[in-house]
Design brief:
The protein has about 625 residues and is mainly beta. It is about 10% helix and about 45% strand. This is Ig-like domain-containing protein.
Length: about 625
């Protein structure tokens, strides 16, 4: 113990101010980089008489690569050449690092006066990232066997130092000599000094290795630590014989209906190729061979049991069979309980059923003019009229079989005399004007429409409905008759409607009956069941009279208000004498000076209106006038 302490003291005293003993430092660099190595023996301000040297040591052989002394500077290493330089602080700079530069560099200083030597050693470590690993599979498919066979190889090139390769199967690492795994590796150093590593994997493959994937991983060192890269993943195909086969419907994926193309496919539970034939059970005829067979435009008769027979090429003695039941759904055309067309009469009741033969439970719906009339197989109509005539569609679907639907139309005709409707029951017209009116007849058989007035007519027919339009000139004779008759006739009878004409003193701007005034009487249209509102002619004049009357009343009230204000102002100024004996009460004017405002009521019974061309006189007591007495 005492001897160790003594030795330590001796070493400390020997290092002094120049002589120092340091453990070698490490410097890491990537290939292609530039590094700077410091020489701790040189300090600013120290004597320039020292002898300084940079040396390289490789395989324990030292070589001076730079020298500076009393005689000047000399560079002696041709390998570093222009890539090496030393600055004023005695730092050694090396550019474009190569793997050959991995060695020790020694900075050495000597004091001429004392001959004392100081050294500083730097170990340079060089690194190069390898290329990503590439994996190659030996064969496209492998036989299932217990024998070891070469599976593939993995290579990584241009790395430094030597990288390492690890194999994986389904993310599990494989080790050499474990579970009959054999891994062999080789390392090759290129002329550049970089390394190429190649690894070969050999394993026995079994049935459960089919579709497995393998890949390799290369791990390497760099100046920043440990790293790794993975290759792409490769799937393995392992061939082994089938023990059983299965037959399934690959298309369509859902229920099958008549007219579909059906694909049946037979597969084995192995990976070896099979010789497959298809047939219908208990029938000798073959439907086809190969991986699948297509049954085109199947019908209900195609329903039944189908089978496939599979034989392994490597074992012709082993036959395998599988079956499948094919069910083809169908839906026949609907059948009505009564033949179309069905003829009924107004007021009748009708019930018709719609049935369709199908392979599954069906749903039925009746539609008429886009509206749903029934959600079952029965269509029931009561109190029928011409409006219920037309085509009714029965739609039958199979909810369990998407896309399977049929439909059929039933025509129902209500036979009876025409039902009439006119554009207006009454109109106001002026003499010598052209007026257009419309009459519609609904019925079966189709009707013939006639008018009681002469004019221009146009007709159009839509189904059971016929429309006639009459344009006529208003004459004094027509005004004398006061009515136009529209008459519709078919084999079942006739109907007619009247349009009353009223003379109008107000100019008529529209020549169509829909824009004219209606008659003063409200009538029910027996043809359509609609009520046509009417406005009396006198009401039109009254509406105008009321407006004028309101304006007159407002003006009178304003004048009274102004007069009252003037009188009150004169009274305050004393211009109007006031006294109990001689003062005249301004609120009680004489009978001749009474200010009267005529108030005409809104009630038609109390209003007197003279229509153009009429003469009427009433006694003052019958005119229903009212007065406002300002005295009260």
């Amino acid at each position: 113990m005492n001897s160790l302490i003594l030795l330590s003291l001796c070493l400390l005293s020997w290092r002094g101010s120049w002589g120092q003993l340091d453990v070698a430092q490490q410097m890491k660099a990537q290939v292609g980089e530039t590094i700077n190595l410091n020489c701790n023996s040189y300090k600013d301000g120290e004597s320039n008489n020292k002898t300084l040297e940079w040396l390289s040591m490789q395989k324990k052989a030292e070589k001076v690569i730079y020298h500076r002394g009393p005689d000047g500077v000399s560079v002696k290493d041709p390998e570093l050449g222009q890539r090496m330089s030393v600055d004023e602080h005695f730092r050694l700079e090396i550019t474009n690092i190569r793997v050959q530069d991995e060695m020790k560099f020694i900075c050495k200083a000597e004091e001429p006066s004392t001959k004392e030597i100081w050294e500083n050693t730097v170990q340079l470590l060089v690194f190069k990232k390898p290329e990503p690993p590439e994996i190659v599979i030996t064969e496209d498919a492998f036989r299932s066997t217990d024998y070891i066979s070469e599976l593939g190889s993995c290579a990584s090139v241009n790395g430094y130092p030597v990288p390492n390769i690890t194999w994986y199967k389904n993310d599990m690492p494989l080790r050499d000599a474990q579970d009959k795994v054999e891994i062999s590796s080789s390392v090759t150093q290129e002329s550049s000094g970089l390394f190429t590593v190649k690894s070969t994997l050999s394993v026995p493959l079994r049935e459960d290795d089919d579709k497995a994937y393998i890949y390799c991983e290369v791990s390497y060192l760099s100046s920043s630590g440990h790293h790794m890269m993975e290759s792409e993943r490769k799937n393995i195909t392992v061939l082994y014989p089938s023990r059983n086969v299965r037959l399934f419907q690959s298309f369509p994926t859902g229920p099958v209906k008549e007219g579909d193309n059906v694909e049946l496919k037979c597969e084995g539970d192995g990976t070896n190729s099979l010789d497959i034939t298809y047939s219908r059970k208990d029938e000798d005829d073959s439907l086809g061979e190969g991986p699948s067979v297509i049954l085109e435009k199947v019908t209900r008769s195609s329903s039944g049991i189908y089978e496939c027979t599979g034989m392994d090429f490597e074992n012709s003695d082993h036959l395998m069979k599988a079956e499948i039941e094919l069910r083809v759904h169908f839906l026949d055309e609907p059948v009505f309980s009564q033949m179309s067309p069905i003829i009924v009469h107004p007021g009748d009741q009708l019930s018709v059923s719609c049935e369709a033969n199908s392979s599954a439970e069906a749903e039925t719906m009746w539609k008429h003019k886009g509206h749903i009339m029934s959600r079952n197989s029965f269509l029931t109509l009561s109190q029928m009229n011409h409006a219920t005539s037309g085509k009714y569609t029965c739609i039958v679907t199979l909810p369990s079989v998407p896309g399977l639907s049929v439909s059929k139309e039933l025509e129902i005709t209500v036979k009876g005399k025409p039902e009439l409707s006119v554009s207006s029951k009454s109109i106001y017209v002026q003499e010598n004007t052209i007026v257009t009116v419309t009459c519609k007849a609904l019925g079966h058989p189709k009707s013939t429409i006639t008018w009681s007035a002469n004019g221009t007519t146009s007709e159009k027919t839509e189904g059971p409905e016929k429309t006639s339009e009459l344009s006529f000139k208003v004459t004094s004779e027509l005004l004398g008759i006061g009515v136009i008759i529209c008459k519709a006739t078919n084999k079942m009878g006739s109907s007619e409607e009247e349009i009353q004409l009223f003379h109008s003193s107000t100019p008529v701007f529209s020549t169509t009956s829909s824009d004219l005034f209606t008659s003063p009487v409200s009538e029910n249209n027996t043809g359509s069941g609609n009520t046509i509102p009417s406005v009396p002619k006198t009401d039109v004049h009254r509406a105008g009279s009321r407006g004028v009357l309101i304006v007159v009343v407002i003006i009178c009230i304003l004048l009274l208000a102004i007069l009252g204000a003037v009188l009150y102002f004169l009274y305050k100024k004393g211009h109007i004498p006031c006294g109990r004996s001689g003062k005249q009460d301004i609120t009680k004017p004489s009978e001749k000076e009474q200010i009267v405002v005529e108030m005409k009521p809104d009630s038609p019974a109390e209003e007197s209106v003279l229509l153009p061309g009429e003469q009427e006189t009433k006694s003052p007591g019958d005119q229903g006038e009212k007065y406002m007495d300002l005295r009260n």
